[in-house]
Amino acid sequence: MAPLAKMELSEKTRGVVLSGLRYLARTQNRDGSWSGRGGYSRNVGVSALACMAFLANGSEPGRGEFGENIDRGLDFVLGNVRRDGYITAGADSRMYEHGFATLFLGEAYGMTQRQDIGEKLRLAILLIQRSQKQVDGGWRYDPSPAAESDISVTVCQIMALRSARNAGVKVPKECIDRAIAYVKQSCLADGSFCYLLRSRSRGSYALLSAGVSSLYGAGEYDCPELKRALHLFEQETPRNISRRGPISHYYSYAHYYASQAAYHAGGHYWSNYYPAVAKELADSQESNGSWQDTFGEAYGTAMACLVLQLPYQYLPIFQRLGADEATLKRAAEPPAPKGDEPRAPE
Amino acid sequence: MWRSALSWLLGIDRGEIAEGTGVRLKFANLWPTWVILVFAVAAVWLVAWLYRHEKGTATPRRKIALAILRCLLLALVVLVLFKPILAVEKSEFKEAYVVALLDDSLSMRLRDHYGDPTMRRTLARLAGVDDAQLDELSRADLVNRVLASPSLDLLDRIGRSCKLRVATFANDVRGVDAQAWKLGVRPSGRIGEERAEARTPNALVVPQGDRTLLGSGLREMAEGLRGHRIAAAIVFTDGRTHDVDPTVVETARRLAAIHGEGFPVFAIGVGAVEEGKDIEVVRILAPTVAKKDDQVTFSAVVAAKGFTGEVDVLLKADGKLVKTARARLEGDGPQTVPIRYTPETAGTFRFTVEVPAEPGELSTENNAARHVLTVKDARTKVLFVAGQPSYFYRFLKNALVVDKSILLSCWLQTADSDFVQEGSRRITHYPETRQELFDFDVLVFSDVDPAMFRPEQLADLRAFVGQFGGGFVFVAGTFHPPEVWKGTPVEELLPVALGGAAGAGDLLATRALKEAFRVRLTEQGRLHGISQLADTPEESQKTWESFPGAYWYHPVSRAKPGSVVLAEHPYDRDDRGPMPLVVAGRYDPGRTLYCGLDGTWRWRFWVGDVHFGRFWVQAINYVGSYRILGGSRRIQLATDKRSYALGERVVVQAQCLDDAFRPLQAESVEAKLEAPGAPAQAVRLLPSRQGQGIFEGSFVASRPGSTVLSVALGPEQESQSFDVHLPDTEFQHPTMDSRTLREVAEATRGAFLRLDEVERLPGHIQSVAQEITTEVQDPVFDAPLIVVIFLGLVCSEWWFRKRGMLA
Questions:
Q1: pLDDT of A156
Q2: Cα–Cα distances in Å, from B793 out to A80, B60, B799?
Q3: Is the peptide bond before B246 cis (omega within 30 degrees of 0)?
Q4: How many interchain CB pairs under 8 A, A with B?
């Protein structure tokens, strides 16, 4: 993890972001959700990502330009937490959505006077723990613990667990350890991450980015898997910046993780990545402030705003710790008294 | 022989007619000229008429001779009637005093650069050094060398013809052993040796006075020699005097006006005359105690006169260069040059900030300033209690946990009961006992729920700050507004009075939650150590002005008396003024801080923890400074000031506890004083009347530089450092004040000479000597000579008359 190079925030980027956030604010439904294409209308995952985009801009529940939007988004997400903790708003909503919604609750916890957020966050986290696949330690589309995992959904759950852990929610160490082990097993010899352990097929740039960011998030700064993956990430990034590149279908998803991977890696990874993606996103923004995406404008806009606002450094889940700082922190920590806390640094 | 005869004939003392004395005949009863003329004509006519009609055989020639004799006789009688007096002029210089006053004020430590080549050559010759070595000599060195120069032999030459007194002056006049100047400096010695030697008691001029009182010195010297004749005063000085009422010129005029006692002053000006360039490191602003691995900013105040350009500013620790900063100096005003340095080892270090001398600088003596820094190998133990996992909590814990100066323990109240609390020193429960609580140095409360605390825990919290000296930071939040602590010890600790003009609830529904406001630093806040977020206050101010605004704050009634408002609301105010947002206070001996904002994490925008982390680390270290840097738990050591002028009295107070933490009962406590370039000295501290284990003492700051005072009780030791600086008044104007010296000389009819013109001094003294004479008058009408002449004339007349057959 290298230091971040000094970089000026351009007024253009700020304007692009604000335009995107205002699009989201304008298009938010009265119930706090967003409309979208197909199954992505009134989707808890999309709503969570859009509200996280507001949080990343510095608005808080009830405070700031988008404070009321966040409050309504919270209403929607919290209103869709089932008794078993599963956060879903429709048949098409799966663990992806649950992961993003739980992450949002984790980030909003402690910033709102709502009394139910802590309780529902804990229910959602328990569901993630219960649905961890017994065979490999990861997660898949459905909350059942049976069957095998895929890395995409797994990274999503790891992020949610980290956020909750930051907010003082108990997350068993074993749960995190198994998840990280799964991510490491998914890393192939060339640094890429396979979608399914069974197939061992070379994964996409999106999975590579997700794998790298999850390893960083878990505090795995020196493991060989990360080194291999970063090497590949550096090679793959230039051709994946363009929306017309190989990952056009999952462009938003890929860069949601790619931005985090580059940000955590720092140094030239970040200084090469951010200006390029910022330009690409600025160029591809619609006149109404939105971004087109396979899964709808709200999803595409939320993801683009999250990518562009990563260096705003307002979302705790994206907080970056330096390598030496992390080492120091680990060195200062005594062995965990109960042996059950996660290894995540935050 | 002839003098003896002349003395006998005139009837006067022989000694009165010495060689070189002037002798004049004067008359005490001289008639008016016309009377003399009438009498002379009448006498001559009468004598002539008588001898013309005298019968006898005398020839006319004999009669004429007799008439002449008679006239002479009459003239002698008239002369006697005139009461003749012999006036002998006598020089008194031998008995008069010439006083040499030598300036030994601290400004005589200055070394000058003499630009004029002729002047340089002359001074170098007089001082017996090479031209190149001249700039290495201080003014005092130059005076010592010139006065001891055998070729010039200045004082000896003067001393042979009069009574010479040598004295030094600065704050007062001190006589110098008449022979001391002969034993002082050997001009043949090497420069380095000489400077060491010049500090010996035998050196004539050893600069030590913090003021130059030339007028007082002249007056004091005149009074000391009252009843004696003072022929002249010779003053060796740079002329930078501090006589105010009266000024030195007025004093000189008054002394000159005293009839019969006035004396000329010969002012010998020492030092460079021209206003040239000079760089001065005025002082260093830096903490006296810091923690190991903590960055320390040494703010050097550098003033440049007549110089514009870039210079290196060197930071040295115990003489070893540790950091160099480049600074551009321009204008005549002082400017601050920050030098950041991170000490990596614990101990007490004498830091020097130095600007290498520029060619042709008037003085290089003022190119460095010193500062003592004690570096402690200690980390601030912080207990961070948060009522909610707010962003403030999440970001601050991460900022603190990676900070090398802090050992963090977190206690998140809303965390799951089996949650492993975070921090670099994890705890499993909030401190139950006083011992557990007192293991920390600082407590940070952020939106804390008071329901968690038992009354005895809150009492311990008050004792933690009020007795133990721990630091307390209170950050307001919306879940548990500060008013929930009313009536508890926490309310006492806060530096603000609760119960503001508007309730928190009112604000929750106002525009303030949608429209951000930017925190505004107060004047005190701009200069306070907590809020310094850049190397200079100006840059720091810009940083504060660049911060994103906050959406919420908690209003309070007012800042408590004695507390310092560091930041305030830009437009919300009540009848007492703007609403305080960040307030630093004291709950002696501990320090406290109130922050009415929960959104300081917003300062992370784009830069992360750079400003947010720095502010809170500084705030925590500030409130914890008593515990962290106070060192000993049994000794509190304090001096009445942090900085003293040389010669000023330092008052020391030490509060000591015994092994059982009760006030120490002892007859005295010994403190150790370590001044630069001097062996350690013991300072005895005696019990104060106040009791309570307080011991007091005082001593005079006798050496410039950073000085360390320490007290040890068994294994416990406490140190305190302070700065002893040369008095500013002596160094504000480093050039010689020739104008004042010239005025003094003119007022006394003396002369002003530069030191390179000192060879002309004996000539001036000689002219003074010639002017100092007295006249001895001796009546001579009864002198043997008169009688002899009278008898001679009478006998001659008688003999002529017999020869001329006259009756």
A1: 95
A2: 159, 19, 10
A3: yes
A4: 105
CA distance B247 to B252: 9
Distance CA A331, CA B760 (A): 79
| Contact yes or no for B408/B438 (Cβ under 8 A) | no
DSSP secondary structure code for residue B364 in this structure: S
Q: What is the pLDDT of residues A280-301, one digit of tens each?
A: 999 999 999 999 998 899 999 9
Pairing state of beta strands B84-91 and B22-27? antiparallel
Residues 6+ apart with CB under 8 A from A228: A187, A189, A190, A191
Q: Which residue of B has its CA nearest to A311?
A: B606
pLDDT by residue (tens digit) across B710-766? 888 887 777 777 877 766 666 666 778 888 899 999 988 899 999 999 998 888 887
Shortest CB distance from A63 goes to which of B389, B419, B551?
B551
From the DSSP assignment, how many helices (H) and strands (E) are in chain A? 13, 0
For the stretch B34-62, what's the b/e string if a residue is b when 16 or more beta carbons lie within 10 angstroms of its beta carbon?
eeeeeeeeebbeebeeebeeeeeebeeeb
Residues of chain A with pLDDT under 70: 1, 3, 5-6, 38, 91-93, 321-346
pLDDT given at position B185: 39
Q: Residues A110-134: pLDDT tens digits?
A: 999 998 999 999 999 999 999 999 9
The stretches in chain B having pLDDT less than 50 are 183-201, 501-511
Which of A9, A67, A340 is opposite residue B513, by nearest beta carbon? A67
Q: Does A162 touch chain B (CB under 8 A)?
A: no
User: Is the minimum CB–CB distance between B388 and chain A shorter than 8 Å?
Assistant: yes
Provide the pLDDT for residue A333.
39
Mutate to test the interface with A, among B420, B425, B547, B551 (most CBs of A within 10 A): B420
**Residue from the list B401, B599, B601 with its beta carbon closest to the beta carbon of A329:** B401
- B406 closest CA partner among A329, A323, A321, A165: A329
- Would the CB atoms of B428 and A337 count as touching at under 8 Å? yes
- A111 and B CB contact within 8 Å: yes
Quick check: B391 and A167 CB within 8 A?
no
